[in-house]
Structures are given as C-alpha cells and as structure tokens.
Amino acid sequence: MSEIYVAFHEYFEIVEVDSVALLEEVYRLRYRVYCVENKFEDYRSYPNEMEKDEYDHHSAHILLKHRPSGRYIGTARMVLQDRLDPYKAFPVEKYLQIDSDKMEINKLPRQNLAEISRFAVLQQFSRRRLDNNKPDKLNVKDKSVVDRRRFPNVFLALAVGVFQMSAARDVEYWVSAMNPVLNRLLGYYGLGLHPVGPLVDYHGMRRPYYAKISNILHKLHHDRHDVWELVTDCGKVFPYTSAYTKSVHVYGKRLNRPNLASG
Hints:
Blueprint: H1 3-11, E1 12-16, H2 20-37, E2 59-66, E3 71-79, H3 91-95, E4 113-121, H4 123-126, H5 154-168, E5 173-178, H6 180-188, E6 194-195, E7 200-201, E8 205-212, H7 213-223, H8 225-232, H9 239-251
Parallel strand pairs: 4-5
Antiparallel strand pairs: 1-2, 2-3, 3-4, 5-8, 6-8, 7-8
Helix pairs in contact: 1-8, 7-8, 7-9
C-alpha cells in the first residue's frame, strides 16, 4: 500500500450521510465554513445556522471525519438528477455559461451525470485557504505546499468520498462550478477537471468544469498509481477500471471493456 493510502485511513473516515441527523451536521458545517469563516454567504439568510438550498433534496452527501479527534471536519455533495423533474437544470447550467464546443451537456445521459459541489473544510484543518479574491494565491506546483504533509490534503480526502458516491450511484460524468484554485489543487493529484466555459462571479469566481470518471481513473492508474489506490480502494471501487487498466499496462493495447458512453 502507498503511504498516502495508509495515512488517509489513519487520519480520515468517509461517512455517507444517510439520516436526518447527519444531514443536519452537513448543513451546520457548511454554515460555519461559508457564512462564518469565509463569509461567502450572508449568515442572515440562515437564521437556524444551517446552510442549504433547493438542490440538497436530490443530492448525495458525505462527511469527512477526523479519526484522532472524532470530529466532522469537512463535507461535499453530489447533485443528482431530480427524479421528480428529470430535466431540471443543474446549478452549473443555470448560473454559469458552458461552451458547447467544449461540452454538449444535453447529449450526456442525465441519469449518469452529477454535479460535484459544496466542498467545505473547517478552516483549522484546511491549512491553506482557497481565497476567491486571490485565485493565484496557492501555487500547487510548489511541492512544499503538499508533499511535506504525511497525511493527504483534506480536499483530496473529500475527493475520495466523491468517488465512492459516484460508484454507488452509477455516475459516469461530473460537472462542477468550481473555484479554479481548487481545481488546480486537485490537478496536482491528477484529479483536475476540464474547463468548459469562462469565469463567472457566482459565490466568488467560478468556472464550469467537466470530466468523465473512467478517463480520470485510467490516467491515474498510469501516472499517479498511489492516488488511484486511494480513490478506488485498491480497485474495489470502480473495479472494471482496475481490470481494464491492468490489461492496457500489461499487453500495451486496448482490449474489451464495459460499454461506456463517449465523452
């Protein structure tokens, strides 16, 4: 096992939100991060100190638990197709501009599409703040930012939970309205998404991004095998990718694999 895999399991636990009590933990944590610590949102809009919106009722959520302290220190969500309104626009479609030359979102199967959002980490654990007003503040090419820590970056830990949610719900494609700094940070680990539109001021500067999960995993297996081990739990999550990438690595040619939509 890689050091990053061992360290993750020593320090972190992904908790899938499957109860009202845990969902309220998510909302309270988001309130603290977005309304109190960073002031991205107006706290007066949430008198009960729980930050939530219209997309939460058809989303999957995870909490990140810090094992040594037993505290929930982060959360992320994945907005899924609304079963009551299958063609309801995802937030990235509604609030940002997608370049159709880079991605035609209407051609993707919406039942296999999800928007990843609400990455939130308590300030004392994030180590490095993602400052929306200074998008170049974090230089992820400087290895001292990441490599000196024994345990994985907290945002990388949240990404592990997003992969788990995706595998459990047959999600094959991601879109996101993301801070470019966060995408560059994830890109350091081989998890960056592709920009598909211009920057827009939407709760800070955001850009629309897109990725096909199988493409990320195939590239990870070749370029960042340690991260591949982490996000797939050594091939237990998305196991077809494990078999496919192994065949490519060993035989040097493309063999049969499950039929996935192009993208």
